[in-house]
Every structure is written in C-alpha cells, then in structure tokens.
Design goal:
The complex is a heterodimer of chains A (289) and B (260). In chain A, 33% of the residues are buried. The two termini of chain A are 38 Å apart. Chain A has a domain of 169 residues: MetI-like (MetI-like fold), CATH 1.10.3720. Chain A is an all-alpha fold and 289 residues long. Chain B is α/β, with parallel strands linked by helices and 260 residues long. Chain B has a six-stranded mixed sheet, sandwiched between helices. In chain B, strands 2-1-4 form a three-stranded antiparallel sheet, with helices on one face. In chain B, strand 1 and strand 2 form a beta hairpin. The chains are: A mainly alpha (289), B alpha/beta (260). Chains A and B meet through helix 9 and helix 10 of A and loops of B. The structure holds adenosine-5'-diphosphate and magnesium ion (MG).
C-alpha cells in the first residue's frame, strides 16, 4: 500500500494524466494527424490478441477447461445481461466502490487539509496515521471479518481504509507546498483565513488531491476484488467465485473483464473531472475561463 | 519635495496628491546576529516618487518589506501620515504573484480584498486592466500572458483599490530591455495620473534616474546618499543632465564595490 500512497512529483501531477494532450501539442508537427493515425493502431494489438485467442480455442489449442473462447465469454455476458444478474452484481460492486471511496476520500481530504493547515492537528494525528499506513490493509481481512462479519460494513471499511491513505498523503502534500509567495500576496490584500483557503490554498492543493484520487482508484478496485472474492454474497467478485464452483470459466473471465471495464470507467470520469477543475493548468491546454 | 522639481513640468500639471507622506526614524532590522538595516532615517513627501538603489544584498528588499508592513522592524519607527498602520501600502514584487487558477480579472479583483466579489470590484478591475493596457486579456488565464503583461496585471491589482502608497520591489527586473522601458513609461504615467506615493527598489541605474524624484542610495544597510533628480518629465536617456546623474550613481555604486 505504501507505494500506491506515494507522493508523485509535481510533474507527475498532470503529465501522466494527459498523454493525449501532449500528442496534440504544437511542439510536435503533424501531432493531430499522428493522433488520428495512432488511435486505430492502439487497438491493433488487442484485436490481434483476440483473433489469436479465438483461433486457439476454435482449433483446440486452448482447452475449454483452461480458457473459454472470446465468443463463449461474450455469450456468457449476453446471458447474464438478459437474466439481469450482471446488472445486479455490477451495481452492488459499483455502489460498494463508490461508498468506500466517498467515506475514505472525504476522511482523507479532511485529515489532509486539517493537518496541512494546523500544526496542532498534524502533531496529534500525523505520526499515528503514518504508522497505520505501514500496515497493508488487506492483511486486516481476517480481523475485519471477525469484527464485521461478511456484511457490507466489512467491505466499506476495507475500501475506505485503502482509499484513505493515498488521498490523505497527497492532500497533505498539496497544502504544505502551497507557494508561500501567493499566501503572502493574499495576506497583503487583506484576505482572511477563510478567503485565503478558498482563493489560494484549496485551488493550489487540488492538482495534488487529484493525484491522490487516481492512486486511490487503483487501490479501491483492488481492495474490492479481494474482499468480494473472499467474503461476499453479491457483487462481481462473488459472481466469479460462484461460477468457479460450477466450473463456469466463461463467467469467471467475464467477471475479470468487467472489473477492468469498471476500472477504466472510473479513470475516464476522474480525467474528465480533472480536466474541468484544473482547466487553468497549462498542462490542460488552457481554454479561457 | 522642492518646488524646483516641478518647475519644468508645464506639460503635465500636477494636482494635489492623494498619496501619504512617510517618516522613517532609526529603522533597524536584524536576521539572527546579522544586522541588515541600521539607523534608516528618511522623510518621503506625499505623492513623491522615491527610488531606492543599491547593490545586491544591501537591504533594499528588507527596507521595502518594513515599509509595506510585511515584516516588523527591530528598532525605530515608521509613520505613514502620522499613523503606524501600513494598510494603505500596496506592494508589487519582482514575481507577479498572480493566482494561476483565477482569470486575469479575478486576480485584479483580489486587490479589493474582502470586497473582491462586489459589482463595483468587477467594474473597477476591468477599468484598471484597461488603464495598464491589457483590457482585452481580462478573461484569460495568467499562464497565457507574456512576462510584461503579467506585471501589468499585477500593477492593475495593486492600483485597483487606489492605494496611497505603492511599494515596488524590482518589479521590472525579470523583463527584457524593451518591455522594461515600456513599463517604466506606464509606471510614470499611472503615477502622474493617480498621484500616489511611489517607492521603487531597483538595481537599474537608468531606471532610477528615469523615474525618481529622489534617489536613495543604500549601502550595507545604511543610507549612503540621497540624490535629487531635478529633471523635467518625461526624461530622456540621451539628455546630458540625465547621463550626468547616471554617472554619479554608477560611480558611487562601483566605488562601493572597490571599497568593500
Ligand atoms: N529572512 C531572512 N533571513 C535571513 N537573512 C535574510 C533574510 N532576508 C534577507 N536576509 C539577508 O539580508 C541581506 C539583505 O537582503 P535584501 O534586503 O533581500 O537585499 P537586496 O534586496 O538589497 O538584494 C542579505 O544579506 C540577505 O541574505
Ligand atoms: Mg531584493
């Protein structure tokens, strides 16, 4: 967990988030044409893999007991969509992820802001939080099951805990690295603490908070997958474990693909949010406010 | 300020000043064991343009920060129109210090402090941007402005609340030579129009002679000399009188190196 919660350098705050923007940048001649040409190229490898996969299954090189064919996975998807099971399990997993992210994220932002703004608050809680951070949160699963059983609170607790640290660390870092010259400027113009927070500190910390959020999304799905696989009675992970018992390999693979899809969806939403809220940032191709 | 200074200014008649007069008495500042300013005595007239020059590290910024109330003096007293309060002083720094996440106009509105979101602030911010010549950039992000335009925006922010004293710490130091000359002209015209008291720190000798009613030479944290500049405005570099004062200043500054 500690590496996932690591502080990214200021460059990393936006650079990795915006590969497309860089491809379109004017420093690269014909960047636009390149981007258009490259978009289908990016799909080439997956498409080839899919064809090879289907062919291997069709010609018996890949046994049905090892890996179902892409077509079989698609059929499983259609079947479970029609029965409504996919939607129910997907919604349950999505809701768990969102709830955990909300609780852990808000706590992370709250503690990060408080400890960044107040020396007393930092002295009270920071070293304790740093100690807890060094415990891999998934190692707590046996304990969490004993505490909460296998109900919703166990999953909420684990996801929230996992999500808390990257957001906390990065929010704290963002607040602590606010340009002191801007703070001094604000004070000389008579901004009180509240205005200083709204106009200077929070916007300055926002790119860093987004870095934390993007780390947190990875932790969120990972935690949820493990928690649902080990102890759950609904959700995508439960669906996969149940399918394993009945040797429905197509459903197992489908579940894995759906996790990937959900992860991608969360990433896309975060990017859109980031692009909107950080549109002042030069890395986001500043459009007029 | 002597009347002689104004004698040659038929072209730009001066109105009574809205600026504040200042009295510095025995100001001193230490950092640890190091005394950075000692015994600074200076009277500044309301509406006067005072330029502080000196070599790097001689205490110019420290003095300006005391005047602006950003730091407290270790000894001595500073009075602005007889009062100890420094809130009528606005500062412009070498760095523009614009908020990157606020539009240029929103940055200028910060100059109103607590009243920054009023309708009046909106209108006056745009007017101030027009006055410094970047009215059409009001809705842009600061990151897309040039260095000179950023300093214009910072100047508009400092001026928007009609300050009585404007303190400037090498605000043109990072600009290229042409932009700097443009900005000097702008500073002078704004000062002539608004009639505030200006205190400018610079290490550019020509800039000092171009703008100052008086030039205060700071050496090792002490006032070494005060040179009045009795030349009509706008001043031209080619002018022999201009060059003479420049020479005196340069000689003094270079002499200070040889001595140290
Ligand atoms: N906050 C500070 N702490 C310690 N020393 C300082 C501080 N600020 C300035 N100084 C020292 O005071 C001296 C004068 O600094 P400054 O006023 O910035 O010079 P100038 O603006 O003329 O170049 C320098 O030697 C500098 O190192
Ligand atoms: Mg300085």
């Amino acid at each position: 967990m500690s590496d996932a919660a690591g502080i990214a350098s200021p460059d990393a705050a936006t650079a990795p988030a915006q590969p497309e923007a860089r491809e379109l940048s004017p420093t690269r001649p014909f960047g636009f044409r390149n981007a258009i040409a490259r978009a289908p190229l990016g799909w080439l490898a997956p498409a080839v893999a899919l064809v090879v996969w289907q062919a291997s299954s069709a010609f018996g090189a890949l046994g049905d007991d090892v890996m179902p064919s892409p077509l079989a996975v698609l059929q499983a998807g259609v079947r479970l969509t029609l029965s409504g099971a996919l939607f129910v399990h997907g919604a349950v997993s999505g809701a768990r992820a969102l709830a955990g992210l909300l609780v852990g994220g808000l706590l992370g932002i709250g503690f990060g802001l408080a400890n960044g703004l107040s020396r007393t608050s930092e002295e009270l809680s920071n070293s304790t939080l740093q100690m807890i951070r060094n415990v891999p949160h998934l190692a707590l699963i046996p304990l969490v099951i004993l505490w909460f059983g296998i109900g919703e609170s166990a999953k909420l607790f684990l996801v929230a805990l996992g999500v808390f640290f990257p957001i906390y660390i990065n929010t704290l870092h963002g607040v602590k690295t606010v340009d002191p010259q801007l703070l001094e400027m604000g004070r000389t113009y008579g901004l009180d603490n509240k205005a200083l927070f709204r106009e200077v500190i929070f916007p300055a910390a926002l790119p860093s908070i987004f870095v934390g959020l993007r780390f947190a999304l990875g932790v969120m799905w990972l935690t949820l997958i493990v928690a649902e696989t080990i102890s759950a009675q609904s959700g995508i992970g439960y669906m996969a474990m149940q399918a394993r018992e009945f040797m429905q390999l197509d459903v197992v693979v489908l579940a894995i693909l759906i996790y990937a899809l959900l992860g991608k969806l969360a990433d896309v939403v975060t990017r859109a949010l980031e692009r909107r809220m950080l549109r002042w940032h030069p890395a986001f191709q500043a459009a007029a406010p | 300020m002597s009347a002689a200074v104004f004698a040659g200014q038929a072209a730009v008649p001066r109105q009574p000043s809205l600026g504040a007069g200042m009295a510095l008495r025995g100001l001193a500042k230490r950092f640890g064991v190091k005394t950075v300013l000692r015994d600074v005595d200076l009277d500044i007239d309301a509406g006067e343009f005072v330029v502080i020059v000196g070599r790097s590290g001689c205490g110019k910024t420290t003095l300006l920060r005391l005047i602006a109330g950003l730091d407290a003096a270790d000894a001595g007293e500073l009075r602005i129109d007889g009062e100890r309060a420094t809130d009528c002083v606005r500062v412009m720094f070498q760095e523009h210090r614009l908020l990157p996440w606020a539009s240029v106009a929103a940055n200028v509105r910060i100059g109103f402090g607590p009243a920054r979101n009023s309708a009046e602030a909106q209108a006056r911010a745009r007017a101030a941007l027009g006055e410094v010549g970047i009215g059409e950039r009001a809705d842009d992000w600061p990151s897309v402005l040039s260095g000179g335009q950023k300093q214009r925006a910072a100047l508009a922010r400092a001026l928007v609340s009609n300050p009585r004293v404007l303190a400037l710490d090498e605000p043109l130091g990072a600009l290229d030579a042409l932009t700097r000359i443009e900005m000097q002209n702008l500073l002078e015209s704004v000062w002539l129009k608004e009639r505030f008291t200006a205190i400018l720190v610079t290490h550019d000798v020509a800039e000092a002679v171009r703008l100052g009613d008086r030039i205060v030479l700071l050496e090792g944290g002490e006032i070494a000399q005060i040179i009045p500049v009795d030349l009509p405005r706008p001043r031209r570099r080619g002018d022999p009188a201009f060059a003479r004062i420049e020479d005196i200043l340069l000689g003094r500054l270079l002499g200070a190196t040889a001595a140290s």
